[in-house]
Amino acid sequence: MNFKQVNVTNYGLSAVSIKLWHERLAHQNVRLKYVRDVLKRNNIKFIDDWNDYVCEGCIYGKQ
């Protein structure tokens, strides 16, 4: 069988919070701009709403 390959990355999605991307990317450090750089390189729309947000999972993991 031959299937047509379709690129559906980010299809039909609006911009997603950078907090959600932080969780999806295994809690990478947003302050070091890794998450932002990955999203920008892949042309993924995101809402940069990090500001003073503190990730409870990251705090718990560092204890």
Describe this structure in words.
33% of the residues lie in helices and 6% in strands. The protein contains three helices and two strands; from the N terminus they run βααβα. It has helices at residues 18-24, 34-41, 56-61, and strands at residues 16-17, 46-47. The relative contact order is 0.22. The model has no long low-confidence stretch (mean pLDDT 81). This is GAG-pre-integrase domain-containing protein. It holds the Pfam family gag_pre-integrs.
Features of the shown structure:
63 residues, mainly alpha, two-stranded parallel sheet, 2 strands
Draw up the topology in text.
Layout (H helix, E strand, L loop, with lengths): L15 E2 H7 L9 H8 L4 E2 L8 H6 L2
Radius of gyration: 15 Å
Strand tally is: 2
* Stretches with pLDDT under 50, minimum 5 residues: none
Question: With helices defined by DSSP (H or I, 4 residues minimum), what is the helix count?
Answer: 3
Tell me the series of helices and strands, N- to C-terminal.
EHHEH
**Residue-averaged pLDDT, rounded?**
81
Question: What's the gist of this structure?
Answer:
With 63 residues, the chain is mainly alpha-helical.
